[in-house]
Design goal:
- The chain is built from 4 helices and 7 strands; from the N terminus they run ααααβββββββ.
- By secondary structure, the chain is an alpha+beta fold.
- The N terminus is likely disordered.
Length: 221
Amino acid sequence: MSADPTPTVRDTGDPAPVQREVVGDAPTGGDLEAAIAHQVRLLRRNAGMSVADMAAKVGISKAMLSKIENAQTSCSLSTLARLAAGLDVPVTSLFRGADVDREAIFTEAGKGAVIVGRGTRVGHHYELLGGLRGQHKRLEPVLVTLTDDSEVFPRFQHPGTEMLYMLEGVMVYGHGKAEYTLRPGDCLLLDGEGIHGPHDLVRLPIRFLAVTAYPDNHETE
């Protein structure tokens, strides 16, 4: 007897994780009918309903639901509302995959914008690896390179969460009253409100990725 490939999920009381993967036939462009068709079919199947069951629950004909699921007709607003109610989802869920204006930033190696920071004068190089607009501007990825030994180290404090991922070298990094020795492959996740920064440059050159996630509506400089 083959094992059931479906993993067992234990209910911990925490909110369900956001689904990240999409199935192979999910629409990725601006075809609204195709996006609605895909979502209605996917949600109906996930609910364990047949086309006939769903049509009866929503109050439309089986033929009409079949046309909707095959992107052969455009839905009225009232039909969309009835479909969403029958599937117990927000109406906006039926449009997933129809968005066309989704920004992405590609930065070639060594082509990121140079940031002049407090550590620039003592051999600290900050390279911004890209920045999105609007609500997505709150994420700031920076490649930091430290090449000169110094007894003067900048200290930082800011809203949000920061992640450091070591790529090269060894350093002692402080956060609040704690110190962490970071080597290649090490990761440090910290609360940006705690004063933080390098305390000791053990082995140069040092390179690490610093990604800061600012709170919603935070204006970065």
